[in-house]
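Incident review: delayed structure delivery

Summary: a single-chain prediction request sat in the queue longer than the usual turnaround. Root cause was a stuck worker, restarted by the on-call engineer. No data loss occurred. The affected request and its eventual output are reproduced below so the record is complete for anyone auditing the incident later.

Affected input:
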Amino acid sequence: MAARNRMPPWHEHVRLANGRDILIRPIRPEDAGPMQAAFTLLEPDEIRQRFLHPMKELSAQQAERLTRPDPRRDFALVAAEPLPPGEALVGAVARISIDANGKDAEFAILVSHYVNGMGLGRHLMRRLVRWAKGRKVERVYGDVLESNLPMQALAASLGFRREPTREAGLVRVVLDLPPPKPKLPPPPPLAVGA
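Output delivered after worker restart:
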């Protein structure tokens, strides 16, 4: 029997609409340097839409924090060149973090303009939601700039609803997750020869 080429959990090769092959995988500490380098390639509006305020650079401390999620409550994926972590240019980052209440989780996604408009944001969002369901999260949410219409449209197409926020210029998109299906007890054994 031939051995199957299995990838580690949460790893997958994806071919984008432009023919470029990327690897979607969990973020690694080695991604800190490439993320800092790629940050300089982002347009100011991309940064503002993800971080909700302007930033000129991603500091070493910020990159370190982003690339070391707490496995008990955080999950982060990158879409990168199919090269080893630390060498691969990162084109997108998707994160989700479970709130202290254990029921809600906040997401954030940044897709660079180099790979934008190819379905990558939708693909990453679906992965974040799948992870949240596995953690029995009840609600996934994200705060989005009112001007970020593409993100609002993506969220709406995936079933998110809008909620107002206390901060001017922001809208919250929320997805209520169905509760896990209860496990059915095994059927009773059949009586034979009675």
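Verification: The chain has a mean pLDDT of 84.
Action items: add queue-age alerting; document worker restart procedure.
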